[in-house]
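Methods — Computational structure assignment.
A single polypeptide chain was analysed. Its primary sequence is given first, followed by the predicted tertiary structure written as structure tokens.
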Amino acid sequence: MDYTYSIMSKKIVVIGMGYVGIPAATLFADVEGFNVVGIQRRSKRSGWKIDWLNEGKNPIGGDEPGLSELIEKVVKKKTFRVTDNFLECKDADVILIDVQTPTDKNGIPRYESLKEVTKQVGRNMQKGVMVVIESTVAPGTTNYIVKPILEDSSGMKAGRDFSLLFSYERVMVGRLLKNLIYLPRIVGGIDEKSKKRGVELYKNIVKEKIYPTDALTAEIAKVVENTYRDVNIAFANEIALICESLGVDVFKVRELVNTLPNDPSNPSSNPVRNMLFPGVGVGGHCLPKDPWLLKYGVDTYGNFKVEPNIILKSRELNMFMPVHTANLLEEGLKQAGKKIKNSKIAILGVAFLENSDDTRNTPAKNLYDILEKKGAKPILHDPYVRDFEIQFTKDIDEAIVNSDAIITVTKHKDYYKLDLKNIKNKMRTKVIIDGRNIFDKEKCERFGFIYKGVGKPH
């Protein structure tokens, strides 16, 4: 039987209703002839999403252009619904797996969720189905973990009885739909038929070029994309520390470095530079863990030993930035004649990214823990976050009234609107530690604040 993919009346199951699964599911649900079922575990933390989505409501907070409208639209069309029942996989033509693979404290991937979901899919999928891993995994995962589980639990053979691909997302909070639609797509199949079917599937929602390749190459490309960014942020953070030591503003240095123009006429000698922003730390689901996934892949499946020194040192530097920020705080408090012990510290920003509710691997958590160990009394504030493992407030006054210092961790637009005179009158000790270059140093000092910033002279 020929299982060539066509778009006529297809059922797509998307497993995992998160920052990848929701936008992907709703985009496919808006395609003529597609019916999409989302599967979400009815857990204490995330089970509420099932009812929200079935009511046409968007569970992703912050600024996410077009997503709320699209969810409402496809629910009204009755082409999208959500359940916790894996029996929906039995008549699915396509199954997308969008569950997280976090890493432990040693950088080892935790595959419990992916393995369990893969078993459920294998037990319930039909012959001819196309299974796509969209979530980020260590190189080798599709061939050496997912494929055997699917074959063992289904009794079928990958490449003969079903298609299998790794096709990663390039989403970023704040532009989920835009990135899925307008960024090129990489489709990595275990065989030629899988590649072709994958390309035909994603043509329905992707308006940019689609690049077919093998699954392992696609897996490596995904983690390299994020590792590249992590290394570049580490470079910016290291330059920030150098500038602090020399008494220079790193943001002015960055501005000057980036004046080198783009010259596409001669790519091999193109002078363009794009120094990234330094800051209090790196968060998100991908950047803090993908370097470890890359290392795990080569450690586990590589033919010879490779020690990715630049990558790991960059990761260590980015993990150090909350420590450095805490050191700046102690310096500022000491200048104000205040000890850190029992000082109330307002940490502004719980989400790792501005104007979002995404708290995954947020540097605010590391900073909070460091300050608690030093005897301080930190309080977290965020206007967008719904829930977090540590108690926080949405009331800015609760955070800053009688505080001894403010630390900016997230560039929420709300923080740019803060009035320095108003803040000054509410604080007990006038110290600002700027981890995201939100405030103007000279203006803060004119208002009588002690100002310390990452990458700023002091």
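Note: Residues 215-246 form the longest helix (32 residues).
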